[in-house]
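Problem: given the chain below (159 residues), write out its structure.
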Amino acid sequence: METFMDEAFMEARHALAVGEVPVGCVFVWDNEIIARSRNYVNATKNATRHAEFVCIDQVLEYCKSNGLDNSEVFKQISVVVTVEPCIMCSAALHTLGVKEILYGCANDRFGGKTVVNVAEVVGTNLPIRGGIRAAEAMDLLKEFYKGVNPSAPVPNTRK
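Solution.
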């Protein structure tokens, strides 16, 4: 999985370079990457354009183009992502029934295992392993949050 995590980090670094939260993700099926992405939330102004959701869309297109049953393909997919999937992404991955989720650092604010145990909520039991190159993933997040997010809303301050 180290090679696949390298690919996810490549996506995360690209996200950082274009002003997105640096999360990168690859979906591995039959020992081959069939989907890869990074966050596109700021570029699209669409809060659902997390790396995992973009990869889900790519898998659906891959299955359609190759005459494959996407429900069967998702059952065999290893999700490799630099940061623990958020609650929204985790719920989608559990519902799709992916084979496993492997991630870098924990997501202490929105994590689908750390903040809310999505597996318990949706009643699934898929393997989830975190801490893979966690310091490297956290360093990318720290680098992003040092700067100013140009798409962040202007805070309301009391007068």
